[in-house]
Specification:
single chain, 5 helices, about 25% helix, globular
Length: about 250
Amino acid sequence: MDGARCEADSAERRVNCKTTTAPAKNVIAQVNRWKLFYIFTKNDNSFCSMKTFLSLSLCAALSLSPTHAQEQGGRAGRHDVSPDEIQTAIRNGFGSRVKIESADGRSYLLGDFNVDGFSDIAVLGNIEEAKSDLKHHGVKYVDADPWSRRNGSQIDPLTDDIQNCVGIAIIHGTAAGWAAPEPADKFIIYNCFSSFRLIRKGQPLQRGGGSTGATPRTKGASIFLDLESGATAVVYWNGKTYRGFGLRRGD
């Protein structure tokens, strides 16, 4: 490996690192291993220069870092995903009458919700004028109210008692991505809430007053909701559909 190649690889890693996190202990340990390797090979003229060595150290440290770009919340002003890409995916999958909204400055979440190894997207949308179009587009409208007897069931959006709230349009991605013309599946979750955020896979659920039942073992990333009633809930994939679980009771 020559020095130019080492530096180019390091630069590429730095670009990818912008959406990457790594445990500090792992990074330090790997850099130390490279230091030892340099000490034992520093007399070898065929080895990279000191500058190249530092680049290799950075490359090796960053290679330990699991990327979490697919589990970041999309806030206004961020460029993880372009607005046009989201708008096109929503229009193609849910119809032109779904209007993208935002809550607490956030309009979308990225994560592997159904644990198939592909990135999915959850987008806030006003669906009041689009309810009659959803079935035509093959969208599954699911009741994910934790305190509803229909929790986890697919229902007719035209008969839903909840009105003037916000929909979460969820697209299950494939190897071609969630923006592909034919995604794996499409869902609408509808509720009245003020903000939503991502709960990463394995992140413990914090329960509060009035929460009943066994804590679900979420299989993938899930969605935390601050409901307008003062309650909080999580929407998660149970392997077959989306369900809601009450983390705290509201009014």
